[in-house]
Specification:
alpha+beta, two-stranded antiparallel sheet, 6 helices, 2 strands, 15% strand, globular
Length: 116
C-alpha cells in the first residue's frame, strides 16, 4: 500500500480537532476505505506523531488514536499552512515522506521564511 500524504494530513487534523487526550472520534474519511485509514494512522503511530492503541486481528489492522504527540502537533502546525503543504508534497515525492517530515518538523520556521 502506498502512503497518501493527504490522508495523513486529514488524520492529524481530525485527531487534533476531536481528541480529548484519551481518544477521538472514529476515523472515517469520504473516499477512503477503512483499512487504508487505519494503515495510515498506524504509520503515524509508528513514527511517533500519534499515540494510539493498535490491534492486529484476523479481520485487519485497527488503529485507535488517542492524541497527537508533541512531534505530531509540530508537524501539523507546519503542514497546516497551504504554501508549506504544497511544498511538502512536492519535496516528499523527490526525497521520501519520512525525511521530509523530519526536516519540516525540525526546521518549520526557517522553511516558512524561505518560501514566503
Amino acid at each position: 500500500m502506498k502512503r497518501d500524504p493527504e490522508l495523513i494530513r486529514h488524520i492529524l487534523i481530525h485527531i487534533e480537532e476531536t481528541s480529548d487526550g484519551l481518544g477521538c472520534k472514529p476515523l472515517v474519511f469520504e473516499g477512503y476505505e477503512e483499512n487504508v485509514v487505519h494503515y495510515h494512522c498506524r504509520l503515524l503511530s509508528d513514527s511517533g506523531f500519534v499515540r494510539s492503541s493498535n490491534l492486529d486481528t484476523n479481520y485487519g489492522l485497527f488503529c485507535m488514536p488517542q492524541r497527537l504527540t508533541m512531534e505530531g502537533h509540530d508537524l501539523l502546525d507546519t503542514i497546516r499552512n497551504d504554501t508549506l503543504w504544497n511544498k511538502f508534497k512536492e519535496l516528499s515525492k523527490e526525497h521520501g515522506l519520512k525525511v521530509i517530515f523530519q526536516v519540516f518538523t525540525n526546521n518549520a520556521a526557517g522553511i516558512l521564511g524561505l518560501i514566503q
